[in-house]
User: What shape does this take?
Amino acid sequence: MNRVTAAGRLHLMNPLLTFGVPWAIVASSFGINVAVWVLTDAGAQPRGGVSGGVASLYITVMIIYVQSMTQVLPFAMGMSLTRRTFWLGTALVAAVQALGYGIVLSALTAIEGATGGWGVRLHFWAPGVLDVDDAALQVLVSGAPMLAFAFAGVGIGVVMKRWGQVGTWVLALTTLLVTGGLAILVSWRRAWGDVGAWLTDQTVLTLAVALPLGLAVVLAGLSLAGLRRLVP
Assistant: This one.
């Protein structure tokens, strides 16, 4: 367990990169959105205006974990840490980070609601249906997708480190073909209405907690399997 903790601490060697950059980017996005809402009528709708700017936090966290696997993993293996130990340390950090970020996002969402959307009716930190009006539940709704994005970054990093540029492009192309193929299939079946109805019938817990956690588990398993025979 001590070695797992040590592996986790490797991710904290540069806290400015690990934590500062994601929050600096999302804070910049938040500031831009507030300015837009102040200068325009973006919040004029009955329930105010919704922004998707908080997605920048999730995407940046994913990129940080990609970098961790491509840059920190070789250093860890040079310190005689096994691939499995490093993965466990990474998973520990990702879980704690997702929980911590969920708590912060829940607090920001509560402040946002109490201030009437920062005085301009802006819904930024938990846009749309992701605002569940319950602080404890909001932690899960905001934190579970963060865990999925973190493991997506781990998985991408493993592909980049093990299979290089060719593997990365194959992954990108495969993702494009699968998602595009599904879109073509749904369009051919004229089933977009059914897809929309299914999504509408699902609860926020299903869409924002259960599905992301399930995806995180799948990505975690794939990334662990991909670490085998990975060369530093």
Observations:
- The mean pLDDT is 92.
- Residues 93 and 145 are 15 Å apart (CA to CA).
